[in-house]
């Protein structure tokens, strides 16, 4: 269980460092007077500080699991359910932020809004059903690692998330093509949406594919405990920073008007 504790403390250290170094930007763009806590700001704060709380909780859970070594299978199932819930929640918040940006980019078109909601609903249902069907049957070793990779959960979640991210990216660049034909594609806001959409898409898909590959070939090794905190380190801090704390953040808020 030493690897689990090491992964938890490393995740907490780097997440705390990320929070500290971006505090000036947060103060400039989030805590501005008059304070108006909009939906998109609330989602950002959720991603930022809920992720920090999760890393703190991970260190506590790691010590608890070590104290109960060998860990009972029932406890390991709860640990796996906790990891799935936290990952789904945080990545879902990032998805909603991106969807709000695309929705605003299309001038709040109702059809676009319905399409985005349906995509998100399909992703949530697909991930939830796959987890509900797979996690109860998982068996674990003494290190709280599953004896069999939960492939259905990983594949369904990855397919749903990559599909959603691809749709958002295609819609963003599709709007850029329309903007080009209308002569306003060179505005900074259009460039920001396309650039940040591409960045988030690349990071998210790379992390998901990398996680699946590692799970496929090294899932039973104790270093697998590093996967959960590393997903936070490489996905959530960078994505929420890129899509919210850029120089044109206030313009995006004005465009979204939420």
UniProtKB/TrEMBL annotation:
Keyword check for Membrane: yes
Transmembrane portions of the chain: 43-65, 85-106, 113-132, 152-178
Keyword ATP-binding: no
DUF6533 domain span: 10-53
Superkingdom, taxonomy of origin: Eukaryota
Keyword tags: Membrane, Transmembrane, Transmembrane helix
UniProt-listed InterPro entries: DUF6533
Protein name: DUF6533 domain-containing protein
Organism per entry: Crucibulum laeve
